From TrEMBL:
Protein's name in the database: Extracellular solute-binding protein
A Pfam short name: SBP_bac_8
Domain of life assignment: Bacteria
InterPro entries: Bact_solute-bd_prot1 (IPR050490), SBP (IPR006059)
SUPFAM superfamilies for the chain: Periplasmic binding protein-like II
Signal sequence annotation: none
Length: 421
């Protein structure tokens, strides 16, 4: 309640400030988290933007830990920084409670033309954008090229493949390698992939609704059954093997330890996988027959808080941070692959081979992805991933059927959202 009251108390200030720029110098507070290298780069980029804007000075508020707790305290006191670094969870939480500025109210000061619509809209709350993405990430299939060549396997055609094609290919790997590796890391526990699966089947809002699960249990059951059948055809490892490779970083997973040829993973993990000594490529996700890609994005973003007394100057500073090429030369890809396509092309020569592969992958995905973002998880759905993993494991160990897993997952998630409302 404190956050809501504090944020609403700033609404009049926001409305007054968004119409007219300040007549003199202003100080803009900027908050972010990260390691020391990020702190140094961001502060240097802020200096570039101060020079570019002329009447803005900045005050940096950064931390390596405790960011969320400090931010919550500042919001509750009505003293949040002007600009904050956020993820999807922050945008949903603070955006729904009036803590962030609707980007549409300052859009004349922020040029988002170089950000793909599907990326820009990814964290929309009730149809409004409360943040501007500064990085972009997506789901893709990691292919271990070293293992593929070792066992004489052909590279799959990922430009025109379906889930059936992936199933057949993955199911052939175990026999082709004489039982040395499996085809693909078990996908049935991936909550983001479930949302993409639902979008491909015509549910544009993805997995969630404001009341919990927004799709029929048959959609969830079909996703779980796909993973179950993969296990039964040796396309993925038995549950007793897969479970041993959970809980650590990507290097400890089935794909990271060389026990499977492929895995659906966030594409930014390819850098860590490359460090394992094998060569990897990124493959596009399959689609259902004549279906949409359903691809979704995730990112880190900048947002302007409703506590800001200078939303126009904050917007101009935010714009500089996400689009100024001199600032980009400093920031590079430390936070991840930039969401601004012009920035990506500008820094491309300095990107690692893996980062360039990510840039090529994202360019294809952005071209084909839906412009509308899926619905953000509602309050109470923050444990959906753990719920799905639990029911998927019960299914893979033959304790329950895919249909039962889907029904029980839906019931528990719906109840959790109801309890939180």
């Amino acid at each position: 309640m404190l956050l809501t009251l504090a944020a609403c108390g700033q609404a009049d200030n926001q409305a007054q400030g968004e119409e007219t720029a300040a007549s003199g110098p202003v100080e803009i507070r900027v908050a972010w988290w990260g390691a020391e290298g990020r702190h140094e780069q961001t502060q240097a980029a802020l200096k570039v933007c101060e020079e570019a804007l002329g009447n803005v000075t900045t005050s940096a508020e950064f931390t390596s830990q405790g960011y969320d707790d400090r931010l919550a305290t500042q919001f509750a006191a009505g003293d949040a920084p002007d600009i904050i670094q956020v993820t999807s969870g922050h945008v949903t939480s603070y955006g729904q409670r009036g803590g962030l500025v609707d980007i549409a109210t300052v859009e004349e000061h922020i040029d988002t033309s170089a950000i793909a619509p599907g990326v820009l809209n990814q964290d929309a709350v009730d149809g409004k954008n409360y943040a501007v993405p500064i990085t972009v990430n997506a789901s893709g299939i990691m292919l271990n090229v070293t293992l593929m060549e070792q066992y004489g396997l052909e590279r799959p055609d990922d430009e025109n493949w379906t889930w059936d094609d992936l199933f057949d290919y993955a199911s052939s790997v175990y026999e082709a390698s004489d039982g040395a590796i499996w085809g693909i890391q078990q996908p049935s526990e991936d909550i983001r992939l479930l949302g993409i699966w639902a979008r491909q089947l015509g549910h544009s809002d993805g997995l969630f609704s404001e009341n919990g699960v927004g799709v029929d249990t048959e959609v969830i059951s079909s996703f779980l059954e796909y993973g179950y059948d993969l296990q039964n055809t040796e396309g993925s490892a038995p549950a007793s093997v897969s479970i041993e490779h959970q809980g650590g970083g990507v290097e400890q997973t089935m794909i990271g330890t060389g026990k499977t040829l492929m895995a659906v993973r966030p594409i930014n993990e390819i850098t860590a996988l490359a460090a394992t000594g094998s060569e990897f490529e990124l493959l596009q996700l399959p689609v259902h027959e004549e279906g949409e890609t359903g691809q979704t994005f995730r990112s880190m973003s900048w947002a302007i808080t409703s506590d800001s007394q200078h939303p126009v100057e904050a917007a101009r500073l935010l714009n500089c941070l996400q689009s100024n090429l001199d600032a980009a030369d400093i920031l590079q890809a430390e936070r991840g692959l930039p969401a601004n396509q012009e920035v990506v092309e500008h820094i491309r020569p300095t990107l690692s081979p893996e980062q360039q592969m990510m840039a090529d992958f994202v360019a294809i995905v952005e071209e084909n992805a839906p412009e509308a973002a899926p619905m953000a998880p509602p309050p109470g759905a923050d444990t959906a991933e753990q719920m799905l993993r639990r029911y998927a494991e019960d299914m893979l160990f033959d304790r329950i059927s895919p249909a039962e897993a889907a029904e029980q997952f839906t019931a528990e998630l719906d109840q959790s959202v109801s309890d939180a409302s």
